[in-house]
Amino acid sequence: MTESLPGAHMREELHSQPAMWARAADLTAEQKRLPASGARIAVVGCGTSWFMAQSYAALRETSGQGETDAFAASEAFIDRGYDAVVALTRSGTTTEVLELVERIKGRIPTVGVIGDPESPLVSLVDEAVLLPFADEKSVVQTRFATTALALFRASLGENLDAAIADAEAVLVEPGDEELRDADQYTFLGRGWTIGLAHEAALKLRESSQSWTEAYPSMDYRHGPIAIAAPGRVTWQFGEAPEGLSAQVEATGARFEQRAIDPLADLVRLHRTALDRAVARGLDPDQPRNLTRSVILDA
Known about the structure:
CATH superfamily of the largest domain: Glucose-6-phosphate isomerase like protein, domain 1
Order of helices and strands: HHHEHEEHEHEHHHEHEEHEH
Strand order of the largest sheet: 2-1-3-4-5
CATH architecture of the largest domain: 3-Layer(aba) Sandwich
GO molecular function: isomerase activity
Distance between the termini: 41 Å
Shape: globular
Domain SIS: 28-170
Radius of gyration: 19 Å
Structural class: alpha/beta
Number of strands: 9
Keywords: Isomerase, Repeat
InterPro entries: GlmS/AgaS_SIS (IPR035466), GlmS/FrlB_SIS (IPR035490), SIS_dom (IPR001347), SIS_dom_sf (IPR046348)
Helix content: 25-40%
Largest sheet: 5 strands, parallel
Strand content: 15-25%
CATH topology of the largest domain: Rossmann fold
Protein name: Sugar isomerase
């Protein structure tokens, strides 16, 4: 494979994800730098990082390890008595994240989970958890986001062996042209997988200029199901509400769900996004109107 092929970086990074997760699961020292169980925390990020923050927050709180909120960095309500703030960012240069950390420096302990060890955020936070091995060349994030979430899950006491095995399996299965060529996609999740649903919609939109939407599974029937139709896909991450699959199939849409770890199902979506982009003559390594990091002018 040469770097001149469209999506070459995304393809390599996509297939490296199971190995990245295994490495993150072994980073016990780095996991201990995250806020301890019982601490009341906020997790912030932008775009993909915000959606991973949502998943981490739901997992941490529902496992009884402390109140955990997730915010887009530009819209964070930080002055609520938090014991710590976790800032997740691949580049460590995103303007909104840097401004937030600077604003609370010295008042609220901060932990940065960062891909680039040379970024300015490293020196701003009180604790830096560095994941340079998971950093990426593609503008479209895949492995850094899922590796960070794998680190978070491991820090909460989860065993990732099944997730890793599921991801390895989906990466070698045959492609699905019907799924790749659908007219429209809606992604659904419950609890911690709501963040995955939002991330899936963003990833497919960024990579292939596709029409995507995302909702909590239970809310889908409160209006959004009106978009379901033949040639369209409703993709559920994790367990679906009772009766939902039948309701979607009655519209003629395809209801997509796998009994695998939801993070591995996100890898399956990454592969679909890559295949769809390439089939449309697009390069997901250089998506339209996007850059690796959003740096705003003062």
